[in-house]
Design a protein that fits this description.
By secondary structure, the protein is α+β, with helices and mostly antiparallel strands. Helices cover about 35% and strands about 25% of the residues. The chain has a single domain, classed as Aminopeptidase. Strand 2 (about 50-60) and strand 3 form a beta hairpin. It starts with a strand and ends with a helix.
Length: about 170
């Protein structure tokens, strides 16, 4: 079952993000990796900035989390992670489908360029990779991330973004 996370889920969200992000170690630039990948303080800041987390629950356990953030004219999908032991079981796709249905706005997703499995996942679900110039503009407009992260990331957009930008 997919449901909106509560404040009582904070420790589980934190654990799932850091477990799932372990896949980035040795893949993303070494200067962008740290352990834990996301601190509890950063998680709280993300929530304070409007990231609303949703959980995938099965047998009273949270197996995945995914955030959604309204940015006015677009919606961002943020911090999408599934527990390592629960990957490749369709959980991410179910969560993405649910969150896509929460908005009628174009959806943008940022991820690491070298995380080819993540890029492929979003492409499989109908998102398209944007050109570098557009990616750079969008990452600085909708995200608050260091310049180095902008350089090493990609942005994918929903079909609505295609018609939205024409």
């Amino acid at each position: 079952m997919i449901e909106k996370c509560t404040s009582g889920d904070l420790k589980e969200i934190y654990a799932i993000i850091n477990d799932g992000a372990s896949a980035y170690k040795g893949v993303i630039p070494a200067d962008r990796w740290h352990d834990p990948y996301m601190s509890m303080e950063e998680l709280k800041i993300q929530i304070d900035q409007g990231v609303e987390f949703w959980c995938y629950n099965e047998e009273a356990s949270i197996l995945g989390v995914m955030g959604i953030q309204d940015k006015g004219d677009v919606t961002l999908i943020r911090h999408a992670y599934v527990r390592t032991k629960s990957r490749n079981k369709g959980i991410g796709g179910k969560m993405l489908s649910t969150l896509k249905n929460l908005t009628s706005k174009p959806i943008l997703i940022g991820t690491w360029a070298e995380a080819t499995w993540a890029v492929g996942f979003y492409q499989k679900h109908g998102f398209r990779l944007l050109p570098d110039e557009e990616k750079n503009r969008l990452l600085t407009k909708y995200w608050t991330i260091p310049k180095r992260q902008v350089e090493t990331s990609v942005v994918l957009a929903s079909k609505e973004w295609q018609s939205y930008t024409l």
